[in-house]
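Subject — a protein and its fold
Fields — amino acid sequence, structure tokens
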Amino acid sequence: MSTTGQIIRCKAAVCWEAGKPLVMEEVEVAPPQKHEVRIKILFTSLCHTDVYFWEAKGQTPLFPRIFGHEAGGIVESVGEGVTDLQPGDHVLPIFTGECGDCPHCHSEESNMCDLLRINTERGGMIHDGESRFSINGKPIHHFLGTSTFSEYTVVHSGQVAKINPEAPLDKVCIVSCGLSTGLGATLNVAKPKKGQSVAIFGLGAVGLAAAEGARIAGAGRIIGVDLNPKRFEEAKKFGVTEFVNPKEHDKPVQEVIAEMTNGGVDRSVECTGSIQAMIQAFECVHDGWGVAVLVGVPSKDDAFKTHPMNLLNERTLKGTFFGNYKPKTDIPGVVEKYMNKELELEKFITHTVPFSEINKAFDYMLKGESIRCIITMGA
């Protein structure tokens, strides 16, 4: 392309300070360096993680910053040493990576790459620690190595999944974070058998994706657990068959579920980050074969407490990161599930806004009105 090796000037939604509306700015995006690619972002979506760090609840505040990590786009140019991607490829940038060389990448059981594992503190690129974004010569910090709230971004090639060019980017962009996290927690980690019962704790986007995984697996009963009864009707579209609101019961929810299921569910997936929900999700699975999977991120001082007999009675507790999917190896296959009509994505997309109105996406999420809001970059 004619822009190869050149600085590109484009629009980006910049966060100058915590909790304040993003500001449309003209930014300069430097060419990709060693093992990097520059991507033209066509569609991006807002994830709760963006909001969490925008509110500066999660880390030492790092501003100005360009947020965004769920997106789809086309490779514009590649840096030195990049051999598996080329200009014109349709791609999903991903907040975690796969270097292909570390023990985790060589393991069939792990996706937690030593080099490119999620890092919320880093504001520059791994190669040299520098930002590829600037305004009037002043650097703007990256976020999760993706920074997709910009018409062009630079990403490490190990964080870029090459996908089927026929896949509609305005739909499959949501595969790059929350959807795969929930879907994989069920399909890859809980692994319910056909006809089994599954409890999903938390019916936000990740929980609904976990329910979608249970539906695809052929679960017989999918029990949704949430404190917000408004979520129950929506969740039926994702295969949820029964609902439990812990506030409506005067006994622990794990006891309620055990009574409903003749001793406990076969599988549970926790998608809230609440330590109470984590303990409940574990204690509600059936002895002998029950498996509980933790997805939500707890507060730093939380401690998981349960009686050891719960484990000795042959219940299994597992954790997962990004649904145990390896970004480059496995995510193209999730896109194919959509292309083969196994996976339904449209029902996750509740809103669409033009890039110029990106702050509306934050409003929808803060009000709890959206599952996923697609932001159309060219608009």
